[in-house]
UniProtKB/TrEMBL annotation:
It is a multi-pass membrane protein. Solcar repeats lie at residues 23-111. PROSITE patterns: SOLCAR. Pfam families: Mito_carr (PF00153). It comes from Gossypium aridum. It comes from the Eukaryota. This is Mitochondrial carrier protein. One of its GO terms (biological process) is mitochondrial transmembrane transport.
Length: 119
C-alpha cells in the first residue's frame, strides 16, 4: 500500500493543479499496476507453496505440511526457479487487475468529491 501511495503521489505531483479525471485515472492505474505487479512477484513463493499443498494427494501429508517445509521442499527440488514458477502469469494477472480496481475506486472518489464540493 505504501508503494502504491508513493507512486501515485509522484505521478499526480507531475501534473500539479491540472488534475482531471484522465490524469487521476492514469496515475492511479499506473501506480496500481506497478505495485500489484511487484507484490505478486514478491509473494510468488508463498503462492507456489500454497498450490503445492493444495494438490498434495496424500490427505495425511497435506494436513502435516507447513509452509516452511513446503518452501524448503520446493527449494530442494527446483531452487530459485522452482520458488518463482508461474511468476509471469501471476504478475500478468495481478498488475492489470490491481490497476483497474485502484483507478476505478479513485476516479469515483474524485468525481463524487468534485460533484459535492461544487454543489
Amino acid at each position: 500500500m505504501y508503494l502504491l501511495l508513493q507512486i501515485r503521489r509522484k505521478l499526480l505531483g507531475l501534473v500539479g493543479e491540472e488534475s482531471n479525471v484522465a490524469t487521476v485515472l492514469g496515475a492511479n492505474f499506473s501506480a496500481g499496476f506497478f505495485a500489484g505487479s511487484l507484490a505478486a512477484a514478491a509473494t510468488c513463493p508463498l503462492d507456489v507453496a500454497k498450490t503445492r499443498r493444495q494438490i498434495e494427494k496424500d490427505p495425511v501429508r497435506a494436513l502435516r505440511m507447513t509452509t516452511r517445509q513446503t518452501l524448503m521442499e520446493v527449494w530442494r527440488d527446483g531452487g530459485m526457479k522452482g520458488l518463482f514458477m508461474g511468476v509471469g502469469p501471476r504478475v500478468g494477472r495481478a498488475g492489470p487487475s490491481v490497476g483497474i480496481v485502484v483507478s476505478f475506486y479513485e476516479v469515483v472518489k474524485y468525481v463524487l468529491h468534485n460533484h459535492y464540493a461544487s454543489s
